[in-house]
């Protein structure tokens, strides 16, 4: 029966395999070239205190400007980088760039900005992950207290003990850890309690209709308060969402309401402008 199935479906399957392989092959070469030829660029989105408007830090977000295809979204190419293993070199490149830039900005504006860097599960699971973090911190000279790693809930699914060990090592280094897209995975309270993390990042889906229904956001905020960790909301686009978040106890926000992700140059302009305003106050 299986043989029959294979014969009957071979045409279709071959076609599908062909397409998937072609796409991966092309993309892998394209990604290698992208790394080599500086087609990748880091953008930065401010994280702000929703009460004061002060910038407290920023999230680095990867951009790919392909010479012919134009802009390619990280949603499209990160999965390919993960499938091909290229995420390891790309991820280290991102971390290094982000740390160097943050060190520069903190010196330049005499600030204590914290950089949040997205970390793929594949990166986190590598045995030398902590070594890589240490290496980049040393090379960039950034104080570890200004580095935050954003990981997802799915990181700890299989090898819980290994994950906890690594999180403890990060804590010892002085690096903080946030759970990104929180609420979309399947973390239970008891599971969360075991993880030495610093921040829960409320996923945009719960911010989207928070004005109509704030049940989930409220639950996450209360959970964070009980665990004595901080909370931030992502994808805040409107004033009424901000007001609702402030009302239920979430002050830290990120989203288009304050700013879209910006190029290095534009982000720097924003920092300088903010500094001028402070000086003039
Ligand atoms: P994420 O880490 O959850 O990042 C938030 C995404 O929401 C970003 O999309 C950001 O541009 C977008 N965003 C922020 N505020 C708003 C808003 O108010 N409205 C809307 N509609 N969107 C908003 P982006 O830059 O396209 O990145 C998508 C995802 O790609 C990220 O989700 C992250 O999972 C991944 N990613 C990006 N850069 C990196 C990276 O350097 N390494 C890894 N491993 N993943 C990355
Ligand atoms: Mg993130
Ligand atoms: Mg997120
Ligand atoms: Mg998200």
Automatic annotation (TrEMBL):
Q: What is the top-level taxon of the source organism?
A: Bacteria
Give residue ranges for domain EAL: 24-275
The identity of this protein, by name, is Diguanylate cyclase (GGDEF) domain-containing protein
Q: Which residues of the full protein are shown?
A: 528 to 808 of 808
